[in-house]
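Fold this sequence, please.
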Amino acid sequence: MDLGLKGKAAIVTGGGTGIGAGICEALAQEGVNVGVNWIVGKDEVTAFAADLSMKYGTDCRPFYADISKAEDLDAMVKDVVAAYGHIDILVNNAGIWPTENILDMPDRNWEKVIDINLNGPFMLCKRVAQHMVSAGLKGSIINLSSKSGITYNTAGHAHYASAKSAINMMTKTLARELLPHGIRANAIAPGMVRTPINEDKWNDPELKKSYEARIPSGRFAQPVEIGYTVAFLASEKSFNIMGTVIDITGGMLI
């Protein structure tokens, strides 16, 4: 299916690795010019963006920004518009997933997770939406939620789960307010995805088996599989999907 995305321009936060890299690849496959946001690993992200451009004939470039800093987001949006002329798709993927119990959690650690996983996406949604409205563009915003934003079953992630739950409601309010401008907002809730952050589970056969037993589909998702859902939501083919959180957990929320 041709999703009709060729020539569109996107920002994918945290796009250089893990789920973000899979999203960038899926969009590039559809002919999207992808702004690959990064905060660490400049050389690696630059090489990754160049590889996407070569493989899929698109114009993918790295763009630095700490998403928890408003001034960085202002600069990134300005730079992406200067590079591509417009922003049609925003994917808020960047986030952190620390483990610490409530009784031992320093206040600052709570604030850091909320800043990166919730406040940053809000600030970037606002800035990109302002650009879309002023440019008269019909666009799509896709926020990364999580299984943990819908049901909580692993101790040590109160800050992460709270932020992701808030992302779900933020997405609904975005959709409600932005639909009159032709901008759709949705969220996706992945479950277990094979990324560098959980590579330890692949190196321990017993641990890997125990995790896979929790997934009805029987395996971890691959990052690009998450990207395929994002690409669909970014396209007009998904026009009637608005303000919802899509379960892509491999059945973990059944």
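The chain has eight helices and seven strands. Residues 232 and 238 are 6 Å apart (CA to CA).
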